[in-house]
Design a protein that fits this description.
Blueprint (H helix, E strand, L loop, with lengths): L1 E2 L5 E2 L4 H18 L18 H29 L4 E2 L1 H22 L3 H6 L8 H22 L10
Antiparallel strand pairs: 1-2, 2-3
């Protein structure tokens, strides 16, 4: 992933990776229509200490948040084979990848140690963990590409 001179984003992914993104997008789409606890990270609490206020908050916001996620998935699914994305499409991809990664990480109960060490050999969750790691890497690539277009601040780090 890289930003072009015209402000668009070049996407160079092999077919296998595009197939994985298509598959994960479909899985997330299906999950969004459920009450699966793995989605909890996508809908953070509004009131951690007051269950009734939290329920009301979720009732007010969940529909809109789900609609935004579904719209982003639609963009990803429509453009998954594209070699170039505009800024809006790129942002939709980034949001979707983050949601997919959060769902996988929650399902796998990822910890910092797992991120560094991986899973033991033969663990049946290895394929899902590999997808989680791939999404982490791809998300980082996308953030780097977006940052490449930011103006210099003139502040030395």
């Amino acid at each position: 992933m890289r930003r072009t001179r015209r402000g668009r984003f070049q996407v160079r992914l092999p077919a296998q990776e595009r197939t994985l993104l298509r598959q994960l997008a479909g899985e997330l789409r299906e999950l969004l229509g459920t009450e699966d606890p793995v989605l909890e990270r996508l809908y953070p609490p509004g009131h951690a200490t007051d269950p009734e206020s939290d329920r009301q908050y979720r009732d007010l916001t969940r529909g809109d948040l789900t609609a935004e996620r579904l719209a982003g998935l639609q963009v990803l699914e429509r453009t998954v084979d594209a070699t170039e994305l505009d800024e809006e499409e790129f942002g939709a991809w980034l949001a979707c990848l983050n949601d997919m990664r959060l769902v996988l990480g929650t399902r796998l109960e990822v910890t910092e140690e797992m991120g560094e060490e991986g899973l033991p050999s033969g663990d049946p969750r290895s394929a899902q963990f590999d997808a989680y790691r791939y999404l982490t890497w791809l998300e980082w690539q996308m953030v780097e590409a977006m940052a490449a277009g930011l103006p210099e601040t003139g502040i030395d780090a």
